[in-house]
Structures are given as C-alpha cells and as structure tokens.
Design brief:
The protein is built from eleven helices and twelve strands. It is an alpha/beta fold. It has one domain: Alpha/Beta hydrolase fold, catalytic domain (Rossmann fold), CATH 3.40.50. It has an eight-stranded mixed β-sheet with strand order 1-4-8-5-9-10-11-12, with helices on both faces. Strands 2-3 form a two-stranded antiparallel ribbon. Strands 6-7 form a two-stranded parallel sheet. Strand 2 and strand 3 form a beta hairpin.
C-alpha cells in the first residue's frame, strides 16, 4: 500500500486530485470539440472538452476578447474566491474585474483550463469514450496541441482574433505559440517569465519531477485513478511539488524567511524538520488534494518539449512571424526561467521594444505575486481608450 499520513480532521485524499464529474461546476463552462483533435504527433484525441471561465461581456464584433493562460498547476479560475468547485482563490484575482488592469467593464477575459489538465478539461484522469480513464494511454501533448485546442475554443466562442494573449511560465509558452502559429489571431502579446525553448537545465528539473511521480508505487503504471482514497501516487506528486517549489522561489527569499530555524517543537538533530522543510511539506500536501499526478506528468512533458523554433527554421525565424505589439517581462530573481531568456525574446520579437524587469525577491513566482507591476504591464499593453 502507498497510503499517506493525514490529519484526523482530514479525510484521505482521493487517488487522483482535481475536478471530477459530479463535482460542483463553480464558474466553469465547457466547450466540446465536434471532431477529434489532430495532434502534432499525427495521432488524434477524441472527445476533447475544455473547461473555461469568462469575465465581462463579449462585444458584438468580438474585438474586446483577451486570452489569459495559466501556469503548470493553475486552472481556469483566474479570478474569484474559493468555493464549491474551486479549491483555491483566483490566481490573478487582483488583476481581473471592474476597474482593474483587465477591466471587465471593457474587456471580455477568457481563461481556459489547459488541455491535459485536471480542472475540467480533458486529461489523463478523464474518461475516454468507452468509459475508462485515459491514464497512461493519454497521448503525449505538445504546447502546439494545447494551443490548437484553445483555438477551437475561440472558434466556439465566436472569437476570430484576441485583442491580447497573456501568460506566464507555462502560460507564456502557450502565449508565444499563439503569436507564432496564429499571428493573425493574436492582436497583442504579453509573456512573463518564459523562454523561447526549454533549456537543458529546465528539462532536467522537469524530468526529475516526472521520475519522482513514476517511482511511487502508487503510480501503478499510471492506472491508479480507480484506486481507493489515500493510495494514489501522492508521495511522488508531493515530492515533485517540493522540487518544483524550490525552483519557484529564490535563495535569498528562502534564507530571509526561514534561515536555519527549526520548526516549532521539532529538533532536526532528533529527526524533526527545519522550517523550510515544513513549508515544502505544506505545499506538497495541498497539491495532492487538488491536482492529478497524471496531469502533472503530461503537462511537465509538454513544457520540456517547448520550442517555438522546432520545424520552423529555429527560434529567430519562428519569432519573426510574430509582428504584433508585444511586451516581454522577466523577474530579476527568477532562477528557473532567468531574465536572460526573456532578453532573447525581447530582442527577437519584432513588436517588442525592450525587456521589462519585474523587481521581486520571490523568484519565478513573482509573476503571480507582484500583481501591481504585472498590472502596469497589462495597462501598457491595453491602454485605456
């Protein structure tokens, strides 16, 4: 058995976290594709549904639509409180709403849950047409496949061209792909803390997280979705989250926040934890209740494969296609996707004049935390009329 420890006040986590059929829908809506999605690999994925949320009202001509794209463990709930169907508050709640940077009195904001995810969109925990869970039979996805699904969503919503496509981290990868593959449908672009192509080090970080999940006996070869509560690959997913979270924050922030202090009531010399270990344990425990390990593997593999220049003559030639107005921002303390990678984007995107730097001690997570600075970038991209 691979059961995880749990507080007496908390039930055992389900074998697969994330939204499941029968759960409250919350603010989600869905679009079902009317035909199988043709993937970059040449295979087809049938029965695709994308969950999404919207704020504001679409103009009759569709010209006020903005696409906001989430990062690895995010979802469509970009704004709003937690509640039934939404385990966490909106990840950019401070930016979306009347009078905010994405002013919903003016803009129609759309945030989809990525293809391969686990918060309502088709992914490894979904049931395929025969009623069984996809599990490890779910196909390998690329960022291009995910954008193809989002283009089908735009079609279904009657949006021929986005006024702006915005994303950070994994969302920034998809935003770049929109700009390169569909420049005629991308009116302007804001990418935050993302590269043109995943580097060897970034692939390495992703690969050790995937390995941690697959090494968990609860992984069961990826066929754990019908396993009893508490017996899924929670240890592996939790370990992947710990590894990732270290890369999301900066050394200086962790040092200033925790130092070498022991967790209250625990002595490391007697098997207890340091405060920083308790912090990582906390984030691991939260994720296993709201996220599916199969989706984590699928999305991380897609991020490892990210390369806008693949099959397009290289990065420079690919980015030359994206001539729309563009802003590129890096976070000064980001050690996962360092500003040097955004400097490359700013130099190669025809519509980007210079690199913007977000001042933050929080590392990669700064694009989620520094909403004041991000909001000013949004307002620069989408100035008030």
């Amino acid at each position: 058995m691979n059961r995880v420890a749990t507080s007496p006040a908390l039930p055992l986590p389900p074998a697969a976290g994330g939204w499941r059929e029968g759960d409250p829908s919350g603010r989600r809506s869905w679009v079902a594709l009317d035909r199988p999605l043709r993937l970059e690999s040449g295979s087809e994925l049938p029965g695709v549904r994308l969950a999404y949320e919207t704020w504001g009202r679409l103009a009759p001509d569709g010209a006020n639509a903005v696409l906001v794209l989430h990062a690895l463990t995010g979802d469509s709930h970009a704004a709003g409180p937690p509640g039934p169907g939404h385990p966490t508050a909106g990840w950019w709640d401070a930016l979306i709403g009347p009078g905010r940077a994405f002013d919903t009195d003016r803009w129609f904001v759309v945030a989809p849950n990525v293809l391969g995810g686990c918060q309502g969109s088709t992914g490894p925990s979904s049931r395929r047409p025969d009623g069984t869970h996809w599990g490890t039979d779910f196909p390998y996805l690329t960022v291009r496949d995910q954008v193809a699904a989002e283009a089908a969503l735009a079609d279904a919503l009657g949006i021929g061209r986005w006024a702006a496509v915005v994303g950070g981290s994994m969302g920034g990868m998809r935003a770049l792909e929109w700009a390169v593959s569909r420049p005629d449908r991308t009116g302007s672009l804001l990418v935050l803390a993302t590269p043109a192509a995943a580097s060897a080090e970034q692939i390495a970080w992703g690969s050790v997280q995937i390995s941690a999940i697959r090494a968990d006996p609860g992984w069961r070869g990826g066929r754990y979705h019908d396993a009893p509560p508490g017996s899924g690959p929670h240890r592996g997913l939790g370990q992947a989250r710990r590894i990732a979270h270290v890369t999301y924050r900066s050394e200086a922030e962790l040092g200033a926040r925790f130092g070498r202090e022991a967790q209250s009531g625990e002595l490391p010399s007697q098997g207890g934890r340091y405060q920083v270990e308790s912090y990582l344990d906390h984030h691991a425990a939260k994720l296993v209740r709201r996220f599916d390990a199969g989706s984590y593997v699928t999305l991380t593999a897609a991020m490892n494969g990210h390369d806008v220049g693949r099959g397009r003559g290289g990065v420079a030639q690919a980015l030359h296609r994206a001539g729309m107005p563009a802003l590129v921002a890096g976070i000064e303390s980001d050690r996962l996707y360092p500003p040097s990678q955004q400097a490359e984007l700013a130099a190669l995107l025809p519509g980007a004049d210079r690199l913007r730097i977000i001042a933050s001690p929080y590392g990669h997570d700064g694009f989620l935390i520094e909403t004041g600075q991000v909001g000013r970038l949004v307002e620069e991209l989408l100035p008030a009329s």
